[in-house]
Design goal:
The complex is a heterodimer. Chain A is of the alpha+beta class. Chain A is built from two helices and four strands, in the order E-H-E-E-H-E. A four-stranded antiparallel beta sheet of chain A has the order 2-3-1-4, with helices on one face. The longest helix of chain A is centred in the N-terminal third of the chain and has 13 residues. By secondary structure, chain B is of the alpha/beta class. Chain B has two domains: about 190 residues, Type I PLP-dependent aspartate aminotransferase-like (Major domain) (Aspartate Aminotransferase, domain 2); about 110 residues, Aspartate Aminotransferase, domain 1 (Alpha-Beta Complex), CATH 3.90.1150. In chain B, helix 1 runs antiparallel to helix 8, helix 3 runs parallel beside helix 4 and helix 9 runs parallel beside helix 12. Classes of the chains: A alpha+beta, B alpha/beta.
Chain lengths: ~80, ~375
């Protein structure tokens, strides 16, 4: 299955993003990134229940620092 | 016991604070921001709740709230994380040792120089002039206590921050005695960095505090270590709050602090809290005025509203008075209140003073009992 999510450096920024999106009627859930980049190490992934790129635009407009949108195919 | 030492820490704590600490430790005490399991994520959400609450309350972005163990740690973070070789700072003559000592240490190490601006409690313009007089070309920051922990003197922080803003000087506010009883807004009041304890006016547990800062401020971390982020880098992350929060945070304490802030809001907010606490001080001032052997330092308050009153009883050492009051079942703080500067500058170095500090749970009955006990002590010592 292909997962697409928005990456955050820490839970603080991810949670801030989740609550902002929630205030705009967009549900999402924050989890540890299942596929962290070797350079970045641990980080968090926000799974958006809906259009992830629209959510990304909202976060960008509201200056919520993030590491961009990423996809991950779960081979399990 | 009648507790009148709320400037040291507020007591008792609201039940909701106690419950939050208990429930956290019992039900979801996992390490926040670290693991991927739901307990850790939930713990992280609780920490964020408090971060967001503080950010809303004090007017900054939530990632610019970094938790510390207390206000002293917050002040050390601000002072040592901002000042660089060759900088000069101005501090007030009422600063607590939590400001004086880190500043003095940096000066001793030859990193910075500092000046002390005399506060005139009766004339804010004179205070402002004193600060202005001490500013130099290389003045990087002004570090000011909002409310004196000894005398309850309220400093003119809006005027001082405006002065700093006009000159590009960073304004660092010590909110140890004001957070929870005075409205403070970083953005609106032009505060660069605000340092607060969680366990005093905000009614949280001990072991909590925070440094909060505006968007234009950069603070270098004092400690490096695990943050749960950028784990494959040997460098400390530059993203806030991780940069300033190495190691596991005091999660039960932070959950309690969040409830403490909510309790302040439930009591009607800062203005209502201060009104209630200062009314008790007004009653105390009135009642003490008829005990001839009491010397209350009311002039240090310059007519401003406060929840602190300092006094001495004739020539008795303040520690003696405190000890006698303790026997009467009354808790006050005597001595020098970790504030060398305040006592040195305002003539109370010899015997310190007795400090009464009211809290939201005190009543007029507590004040009447204090005055009764002081009268009793004065009579027993043949002071009146």
């Amino acid at each position: 299955m292909l997962y697409t999510y928005i990456k955050f450096e820490n839970q603080t920024m991810g949670e801030k993003a989740r609550r902002l999106l929630s205030s705009k009627g967009i549900n999402s859930s924050l989890r540890r990134n299942p596929n962290p980049d070797r350079k970045e190490g641990c980080n968090f992934a926000l799974y958006v229940h809906g259009d992830v790129y629209n959510a990304f635009d909202i976060l960008t407009k509201n200056n919520i620092r993030n590491l961009g949108v990423e996809s991950f195919r779960d081979i399990l | 016991m009648i507790y009148l030492d709320n400037a040291a820490t507020s007591f008792p704590k609201p039940v909701r604070v106690i419950n939050a600490v208990y429930n956290t430790a019992r039900c979801f005490g996992a390490n926040p921001g670290r693991g991927g399991h739901r307990l850790s994520v939930r713990a992280g959400e609780y920490v964020f709740d408090c971060r967001e609450k503080l950010a809303e309350h004090f007017g900054c972005e939530s990632e610019r709230v970094a938790f510390t163990n207390n206000c002293t740690a917050a002040l050390n973070t601000a002072i040592k994380g901002v000042l660089k070789q060759g900088d000069h700072v101005v501090i007030s003559s009422l600063e607590h040792n939590s400001v004086l000592r880190p500043v003095h240490k940096l000066a001793e190490q030859g990193v910075i120089t500092y000046s002390v601006a005399k506060v005139n409690p009766l004339d804010d313009n004179e205070t402002l002039k004193s600060f202005a007089f001490n500013v130099r070309e290389n003045t990087r920051a002004m570090i000011v206590t909002h409310v004196s922990n000894v005398f309850g003197t309220v400093l003119p922080i809006d005027k001082l921050s405006a002065f700093c803003k006009a000159r590009g000087i960073l304004f660092i506010l010590d909110g140890a005695q004001s957070a929870g009883s005075h409205v403070i807004n970083i953005e609106k009041q032009g505060i660069g960095i605000l340092c607060i304890p969680g366990h005093k006016g905000l009614l949280g547990p001990m072991g909590t505090g925070a440094v909060l800062f505006g968007n234009s401020v950069e603070i270098e971390e004092l400690t490096q270590g695990g943050t749960g982020s950028h784990s494959l880098s040997e460098n400390q992350p530059t993203v806030y709050p991780d940069r300033l929060e190495s190691g596991t945070v005091n999660m039960p304490g932070i959950a309690g602090l969040c409830e403490g802030i909510k309790a302040v809001e439930c009591f009607g907010g800062e203005k209502t809290v201060l009104q209630k606490e200062s009314e008790l001080i007004r009653v105390l001032k009135e009642d003490l005025s008829v005990i001839t052997s009491v010397n209350a330092y009311t002039e240090m308050q310059g007519g401003k509203t406060t929840n602190v009153l300092a006094f001495n009883l004739a020539d008795l050492h303040s520690e003696m008075v405190s000890s006698l009051l303790d026997k009467e079942g009354i808790a006050v703080r005597a001595g020098y209140h970790c504030s060398y500067l305040a006592h040195k500058n305002y003539g109370t170095s010899e015997k310190g003073c007795v400090r009464v500090s009211t809290g939201i749970f005190n009543s007029k009955k507590d004040i009447k009992n204090l005055v009764f006990s002081l009268n009793k002590i004065a009579k027993s010592k043949k002071l009146c």
